C-alpha cells in the first residue's frame, strides 16, 4: 500500500477543488528547495533512452505529460518535473485574471474513474504567470503554454486575447496551444468556425518571430467531417500539431450519481473516443502531423494504445488525481517494458504502428 493510497480517502472527503488546491500547495512546498526537489526526483524519477521523443525542436525525456488545467498558473512545474513527467502544459492562461464559474465546479465520478469540471478558464492572468516564470525559471522538461480568451470577449476581442497571451508567454514556451474547444466557457460565438480559426492563426503567425511551435486543441464530440475541416486549416497554415482531445459533454455509459453535472468530462470514459480521434487524425494526415493524445491515459497500456494509434506524446490529468505522485513513473516503466516486448527501440518507432 502506497502513502497516497492511505491519504486519498481523506483527500476525497474534501470537495474536489479544495483537495486540488491543497495538493498544489503541497507540491509548491516540495519544490521550494533543492533538497526536496532532489528527494522527489530520487523517489519518482525514471530514465530510459527508449522513452525519449524528439519533437518541436526539443527533446522530451519521456512521452507522458501533464495536461492543461492541472497547473493553470505555472505554480508547480518544477515539482511535476521531479515527479517524472516528460513535459507539462500550463494554462489555460487568459490575458487578465478571471474568476471562472461559481463553485462547486469540479466533481469526482469515482465509479467511472472520471471527473467533470466547469472551471470556466479561472486563473491569475498572463502577467502573474509571466512574473512567476521569470522568478522561478522554467522546469528542466519541455513547457507548453495553453492560451485562451476572456469569457466576456467578443469574437474580435478574442483574437486580441490570444495575441496578448502569446506575446507575453511564448518566450518561455517550447510549444503553444490555442484552446478553442473548451465546453465550459460562454458560447458567445462559434470559436471553431473556419473564419475565426483562420484569423487566429494569421494573427499568431504574424507575432511568431521566434518560430515557437503552434498547436490547436480539439474536442472529442465534433463530427469527423468537422475535425477534418479543422485539420485542413491547420495544414493550410503549416501549424505544428494537434492536441486531441479536450473534455467531452457526453455522459454515455456513466454510472456515478454526479454524472448529470454540466461541464467537461475527463478520465477513463474518454479513452476509446480520444484514441479513435487520434487514429482518424493520423490516418487522414498520413502520420505527418504531430499529435499529443489526451483522454483516459491512466496506465502504460492506455498510453501505448494512443501512441500506436498515432500520438507522439500523451497527457493526463484525472489519473494523477486518482493515482497520485507515482503515476508518471509507473506508466513510463510500463511503456519501456511494452516497447521491449514488441521489439521497438524507441517510442518514436511505435508511433502509428497500428496504422500500418
Descriptive labels:
three-stranded antiparallel sheet, 356 residues, 13 helices, TIM Barrel, eight-stranded parallel barrel, alpha/beta, single chain
Distance between the termini: 41 Å
* Residue windows where pLDDT falls under 50 for at least 5 positions: none
Quickly count the domains.
1
Kindly report the spatial arrangement of strands forming the biggest sheet.
3-4-7-8-9-10-12-13
Query: Oligomeric state of the chains?
Result: single chain
CATH class: Alpha Beta
> Which overall shape is indicated by the principal axes computed on the Cα atoms?
globular
Report the average pLDDT across residues: 95
What does this structure look like?
Its cofactor is FMN. It is found in: Cell membrane; Membrane. It is an enzyme of class 1 (oxidoreductase). With 356 residues, the protein is an alpha/beta fold. It has one domain (3-355): Alpha-Beta Barrel (TIM Barrel), CATH 3.20.20.70. It has helices at residues 3-11, 16-31, 34-44, 77-82, 126-136, 155-169, 194-207, 224-236, 271-284, 300-309, 318-323, 327-341, 347-350, and strands spanning 53-55, 58-60, 64-66, 87-93, 106-109, 114-117, 143-147, 175-179, 214-218, 241-244, 264-267, 291-294, 313-316. An 8-stranded parallel barrel has the order 3-4-7-8-9-10-12-13, surrounded by 5 helices. β7, α6 and β8 (175-179) form a beta-alpha-beta unit. α6 (155-169) packs parallel to α7 (194-207), α7 runs parallel beside α8 (224-236) and α9 (271-284) packs parallel to α10. The longest helix has 16 residues, at 16-31. The chain is globular, with a radius of gyration of 19 Å. The relative contact order is 0.15.
